[in-house]
Structures are given as C-alpha cells and as structure tokens.
C-alpha cells in the first residue's frame, strides 16, 4: 500500500477501524487529545471579579475592646490549656465586670409599683355592697323593679336577655318563690311562663287560687344562669336583697318555697329539702311551706302526690292565719 493515501482512502480505513499509514496508533491519539484539552483549560483566562463582586476586605479590629477578664476559678467541664474562646459580641448585661470571687453582679432594674393592698380593696367593695343593700331596703315597688332591670351586681347581668322581677298580683295574700328564670322566662321577661309555669298554674287552680288575683310569684335569682345551671352562692347573695325587699313590701300571709334553692335561700340553712318538707318553717314571722319545684315534677311526676300534701298543709296554715 503506498505511503500517501487519498482522503477517501483514509476515511474508508478509519471506518473499518484499520490503521492508517502515517497516523499514530489510536491510544496515542487519545492521549494527545486529552493532553491538548487539559492544556486549553489551564491556559483559559479567569475573568476578574466585577466591582459588585469584589472580595470583601478583611475584618478590621475596632477601637472597642472587651476588658481583660479577671482570673476565675476553673469550673467543672471548662476547657483546659488556656485556649482562647471565640470572640462574640457582648450585650450590655453580659459586659458587666465580673468580681474576683467569680459571681456576676445582678443588673439593676426599675422597681415595680406596689400593688394595691388587698384589705383596702376588699373594704372598698364591702362598703359599696352595704350601700347598695341599704338603698334597696328603702325603694318602693316601682323603683325596686327599675333597679332590678338594670342590675349588674353579678356576672349574670351580662348574659341575660331580660331581668325577671316577678309576676302575679302584688296585693295577693300568697307568695310563691322559685329558683331562677328559665329560657322562656329570660326571653319574655316574665316569671313562670314555660312548662313549669303552666304546671304551677294548675297547682294554684287545684288550691282555688290564681296568680292574677291571689298570689305573687318571684324567684331567688332575677336573671337566668347560663344553660339553666344551678345558682351559685355569690349570685344568690347578690340577688337576695331584692327578694327580701319584695317580701317586705308584699307582706304575704303564707310563703311557699318551690325547691331546694328557694327554701335554703329564704331560711339561710343547708338542710336537705327532704327534711324541710312536711314542716312549717317561718321567714321573719311569716309561715313558710317547702315543696318541690314544678320543673322537678315534670321530670318526676310520681312525686305530685307529695306536692299536693304540702299544698294542703299550706292551705291549713292559711286558714289558721285567717282566724286571727
């Protein structure tokens, strides 16, 4: 084969992967290509950084220096060998000089204002409550009703819709006292207008009475407790002066307490209802008969017979009052 080949012959031999006369072996060509590429990369110029990408200047030590630390007794776990701790920015509290004994002086702070004396606050509240009770004891029927309608003496004043003063005839001889307004009473602002009120009207009718002519109906609480829960002690205490003034103005001949809260609130006792039933109690000289609340009878109709016995006792006491 001649030493000089045409380009077509050289390409044909290369396609057949055959050696071409005058060309280096394939492995030597590969090494040469790799070397040329490495040389090109090495000779490539690196662009200079722009002004915005300039290398930050080395940190310059500021004129402020932390005071030289005084010797402190070595603590357990402290590094040994005198290695310097990395420098960090110290707050004003941390930069407080440390005494030789190793304890840090506590940072000074402005003294807090002294809270008001609890005894003085309680005395002020007690004085205001006494003034409220004294005022209630002097009100007539209309002014008493107006004061109840705007009362905020306990938190119930914020949750009620209407304060319920009472219902019936203020000149009647009978007073029936319940526990507290229910949902319907709160909505309408009248006492005993729900299902329990309808049952109470039936009880009055069985006694030969009516609320419009013979009886007045009131409650221990003038505002409805949320979700019809039981009255709380502070609520009863705040509301009782209203009922006491109502009784003083009504001067009933007989009082019928409907339920535990009415009986215990009027008599100022914690005696169970079962022990108060069947007896004649007295509130400031007025005979008082204790029986079940109509709402209780709606849940326990079997006890209606016991209630009728209590009401007959009340009728007997009333008859005795009429003879004097």
TrEMBL record:
* UniProt-listed Enzyme Commission number(s): 3.2.2.27
Mind telling me which InterPro entries this protein's record contains?
Answer: UDG_Type-4/5, Ura-DNA_glyco_family4, Uracil-DNA_glycosylase-like, Uracil-DNA_glycosylase-like_sf
Domain of life, per the record?
Bacteria
Disordered, as annotated region: 18-132
Stretches with biased composition (Low complexity): 35-60, 85-97
Q: Does the keyword Membrane apply?
A: no
Entries under CDD domains matching the protein: UDG-F4_TTUDGA_SPO1dp_like
**Reaction catalyzed:** Hydrolyzes single-stranded DNA or mismatched double-stranded DNA and polynucleotides, releasing free uracil
Q: What is this protein called?
A: Type-4 uracil-DNA glycosylase
């Amino acid at each position: 084969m001649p030493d000089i080949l045409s380009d077509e012959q050289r390409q044909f031999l290369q396609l057949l992967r055959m050696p071409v006369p005058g060309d280096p072996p394939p492995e030597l060509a590969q090494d040469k290509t790799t070397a040329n590429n490495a040389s090109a990369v090495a000779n490539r110029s690196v662009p200079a950084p722009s002004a915005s990408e300039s290398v930050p200047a080395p940190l310059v030590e500021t004129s402020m220096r932390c005071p030289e630390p005084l010797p402190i007794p070595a603590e357990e776990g402290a590094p040994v060998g005198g290695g310097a701790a990395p420098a960090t920015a110290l707050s004003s509290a941390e930069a407080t000089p440390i005494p030789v004994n190793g304890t840090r002086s506590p940072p000074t702070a402005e003294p807090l204002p002294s809270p008001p004396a609890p005894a003085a606050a309680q005395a002020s509240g007690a004085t205001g409550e006494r003034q409220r009770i004294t005022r209630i004891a002097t009100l007539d029927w209309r002014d008493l009703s107006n004061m109840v309608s705007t009362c905020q003496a306990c938190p119930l004043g914020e949750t009620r819709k209407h304060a319920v003063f009472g219902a019936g005839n203020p000149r009647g001889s009978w007073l029936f006292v319940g526990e507290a307004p229910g949902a319907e009473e709160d909505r309408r602002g009248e006492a005993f207008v729900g299902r329990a009120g309808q049952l109470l009207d039936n009880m009055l009718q069985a006694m030969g009475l009516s609320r419009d002519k013979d009886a007045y109906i009131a409650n221990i609480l003038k505002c409805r407790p949320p979700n019809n829960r039981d009255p709380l002690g502070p609520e009863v205490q705040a509301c009782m002066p209203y009922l006491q003034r109502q009784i003083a103005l009504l001067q009933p001949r007989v009082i019928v307490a409907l339920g535990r809260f009415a009986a215990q609130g009027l008599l100022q006792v914690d005696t169970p209802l079962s022990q108060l039933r069947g007896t004649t109690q007295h509130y400031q000289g007025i005979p008082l008969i204790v029986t079940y609340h109509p709402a209780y009878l709606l849940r326990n109709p079997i006890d209606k017979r016991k209630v009728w016995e209590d009401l007959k006792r009340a009728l007997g006491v009333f008859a005795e009052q009429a003879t004097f």
